Amino acid sequence: MYPGERLGLPDSGSRSIGRIGRRIGALLIDYTAATIIATGFLGFNQFALPTEAGLTQFAPLLVFALLQIIFIPVVGGSPGHRIVGMRLVRMDGGWIGVWRPLVRTLLLILVIPAVIWDADQRGLHDKAVGTVLIRA
C-alpha cells in the first residue's frame, strides 16, 4: 500500500502525496525567506547572543508563521510549497478557509505534530485540520 492510497490519491504524479524531499525543500525555502525578511525589516541578528537578542530572536519564526497563514488560503500553499510544486488542499475538496491555516501553523511551529505521521505521510498538524499536502 502506497502513501495516499487510503485517501483515494494516486501513487505518483499530480495529486499524489507530497513526499519528504519536497516537504523539506519547501520548509528550507520558507524559513530562509522568513529569516531574510526578519533580518531586513525586524532587526533580527542571527549572530547576537540570546541575552542580547530579546524578542527579535523569534522574528524569523513569526515571519514564517505569517507566510503560512497568509499564503495558504490565497495561493493554496506557502511560497516554498508552490516553488517545489505542492499545494495544500482540504480532504473534502472545499476552500481551505482561514482557520485551518492558522491552526495548522500553530501546530507546525510546535514541531512535534509535524514530525508524527500516519501511513499516508500526513502529519498530525494536517490531520487535525483535515488537509493534505499534495503535488500540484
From TrEMBL:
| Protein topology in the membrane | Multi-pass membrane protein
Keyword list, A-Z: Cell membrane, Membrane, Transmembrane, Transmembrane helix
Q: Where in the cell is it found?
A: Cell membrane
Q: Which domain of life is it from?
A: Bacteria
Q: Which residues form a coiled coil?
A: none
Q: Which GO terms describe its cellular component?
A: plasma membrane
Where is it mostly found? membrane
**Designated name of the protein:** Putative RDD family membrane protein YckC
